[in-house]
Amino acid sequence: MTNFQREGSISNAHVGRDFEARACAILAAHGIPLQMNHKVPCGLGNDKKLHTFDLGSEEPPVIVECKSQTWTKGDVVPSAKMKNWAEAMFYFHMAPPMYRKIFFVEQSLRVRTGESLLAYFRRTQSHMIPPDVEFWELPRDSDEVEIFGSNADGR
Asked: Is the peptide bond before 60 cis (omega within 30 degrees of 0)?
């Protein structure tokens, strides 16, 4: 059986929780105080169901999804992770329009090309990305976040 746990971590769940806490602190430092596990009614049309976003706030209305995922060994596209990211875009699409939507990602660079996983996602899945999503990319060894708009050219 293949082990997909991040090297050097107790579990992938621990990696995710630690990254959410780090994202929460960085967003707070940018003047965006948030709570963990923020529930928002999401749905198409009039049918809504509560969805739990990683971070969020009602005042101001902000929702955040955090992803601390990497390229697979051998620089192969992590297709299951990309489906998970596309699902996050769908929930952003179904969220009420007054929410600021932030997709907060830990940077992972492809060894062979230097392209980040986020840049790859934005380039190949732009048709899945709502126009009002902000992308915040954080290097693993720094708190200097880079912020991008939702379209693939970075605006």
From this structure: yes
CA–CA separation, 11 vs 99, rounded Å?
31
Asked if residues 74 and 36 have their Cβ atoms less than 8 Å apart, the reply is no
- The one-digit pLDDT tens for each residue of the chain (155 residues) are 344 444 554 545 567 789 999 999 999 999 999 999 999 999 998 999 999 999 999 999 999 999 999 998 888 889 999 999 999 999 999 999 999 999 999 999 999 999 999 999 999 999 999 999 999 999 999 999 999 986 544 44
Contacts of 47 (CB under 8 A, 6+ apart): none
Q: Tell me how far apart the alpha carbons of residues 146 and 92 are, in angstroms, rounded to a whole number.
A: 20
Confidence (pTM): 0.87
| Antiparallel, parallel or unpaired: β 133-138 and 146-148 | antiparallel
Give the H or E element holding residue 35.
strand 35-42
Spatial CA neighbour of 116 closest among 125, 124, 107? 107
- Using alpha carbons, select from 137, 100, 112 the residue that is nearest to residue 122: 137
List the one residue out of 95, 97, 109 whose CA is nearest residue 138.
Answer: 109
* Nearest residue to 136 (alpha-carbon basis) of 33, 65, 60, 53: 65
